Input
Amino acid sequence: MQRHLISAADLTRDDAVLILDTAEEMARVADRPIKKLPTLRGRTIVNLFFEDSTRTRISFEAAEKRLSADVINFTAKGSSVSKGESLKDTAQTLEAMGVDAVVIRHGASGAPYRLANSGWIDAVVVNAGDGTHQHPTQALLDAFTMRRRLIGPDAGLGQDLDGRRITIVGDVLHSRVARSNVDLLHTLGAEVTLVAPPTLLPVGVEAWPCEVSYDLDSTLTKSDAVMMLRVQRERMNAAFFPTEREYSRRYGLDGDRMARMPEHAVVMHPGPMVRGMEITAEVADSDRCTVVEQVANGVSIRMAVLYLLLGGNEPAVTHPRTEEK
Amino acid sequence: MSKTLIRGAKVLGGEPQDVLIDGGTIAEVGAGLSAEGAEVVEADGKVLLPGLVDLHTHLREPGREDSETVLTGTRAAASGGYTTVFAMANTFPVADTAGVVEQVWRLGKEHGYCDVQPIGAVTVGLDGRKLAELGAMHESAAGVTVFSDDGKCVHDAVIMRRALEYVKAFGGVIAQHAQEPRLTEGAQMNEGIVSAELGLGGWPAVAEESIIARDVLLAEHVGSRVHICHLSTAGSVEIVRWAKSRGIAVTAEVTPHHLLLTDELVRTYNPVYKVNPPLRTERDVMALREALADGTIDIVATDHAPHPHEDKDCEWAAAAMGMVGLETALSVVQETMVDTGLLDWAGVADRMSVKPAQIGQATGHGRPVSAGEPANLTLVDTAYRGLVEPAGFASRSRNTPYEGRELPGRVTHTWLRGKATLVDGKLT
Output
């Protein structure tokens, strides 16, 4: 594995499977009465969030604390950043305080890459979402959720997603989740289809390792998992689609559409959902929707990523592992 | 003034000849000229060109003296073999009055490294709404003939039409920065395969091409001439080619970086590659080279855009757009056009001196290397190859995309009206 986690595209198949397997071990910790491992005791991790994202920050924080790391939360609002301090100076200031890893969320695509590759700091960098570029831990937790649901927590160990048909629906253009998922799912052998109105697909999508369709109904019947992306209502004002209602009719997932999916197929959503827009309450609250599981799995995946990047050499938990790298 | 004999120079890349400079003028060109009373420069097979003319330079003074001044910028120009630079109008305050253009012109004259010809803004404050006093700037001591809102597009079709018409009265030309503003809102890089992957806002080729198409048609309609700044796409080349075939009075420039670099470099997220217009694709680069060779694109212009270190030492979205170019332009042109066989040195002289001087009406520049002409000359060691080292730049800024890259060619001497501004690669 590389030293940092910047993009899902940087992960090999074996890297990704190792992370998923490790996350499976971490998930078992969550079932214990004391949900804590000593693995990162004495290590300091800063959650450097330049964008508001309560759920991702809390998920990382939970993962860090379960690994016994010391956690510093830094949000841009009210900090020196809002007074004009540069990313470089902020990062160097934090590193001077003895930080081992920086978990960064930033509105500018490429900010984590710059932080990891410009010689500004030595700490390990984990991308917690950058602009419309990447959100690799989201893709990992999604793949983890798929593997658990479609293969099984135990049966899935050591397995990838070979041949699984995954459909991603919605605002692909502005979505780092979609980019990360396309990269990772392709690496794991899945067949990905993006479904969106043409206005919400980037020029250049033709080079991605996936299929593209403008028609949701024809792809639903051939899907093992359908991932609905959030569509912000404001997009309507920039003429990406005419009205909310038209978007919902053509690309929203309701009960009727869900009924046409194969019986084993699941519905996923990275959250936060816009109920009534891309997903109806009926679907969101159904057993087939994994949205709450995804949140739980997010903690396990982030524990696995931080453990592998920072802890590394010792087994995470004391029972035999399938494979050590 | 003294005499200088340049011995054994390949004039425009031809057979070695001697060139005698007497005072500000070329006295004689021929074989075995007498060195009596003259300082001798052994050219030793180096190529002698007319002093280069840059139609597109940002000198940043007044207002952003932290990135460049008229002094540091003209020293950079002399280092790169230039004897004239046209200074763009997007300073603070904007060069939209006779007062500002005269200040820049006067500073250039005082420093004496290179002639500085200010470009006047087309509209007041570059805001695209109201014509600046174009006539006053023309009649000022600076004698402005080129007008541009560079950095911003004159996007309003009526304002553009009026500007094209108005400057006919005194033979001016409008240099358009072709960028449709709505299509480039939030744009960060060329829109295509790389932008889709990197999640950076796309800057479509059509945003440039649609404005060029509109403006060549406007120029035809009102019978004016129009100059297109830093043309960057294969589609723009096709439009200009078509316009020229119809007899429309359009000229166009390409920057050195658009002849060499592609948007693949943006994968590093290093803002040193962030520039307006953005780096395009390999296909565009090849089309630009071909167009420069066949004359569809008339000239090379640097778009020398200095920025302080902190404006590039940051994340991509926060970084300023632009690259310095004066001190590497000729090397990049040698690499992309000469060493590839697309252009000979006479062609380089045409594209980097003769034509830009004509478009900008820079009297006494871009002239033949022959007796009786002003001694504005550049001597180039074309056999040299070396790494680009920004630490040695005369420019105040270091934002070059070529750091550590090996490039051919090195300007060793520059003469401005017979006075050496650069000797053996060192500024005088």
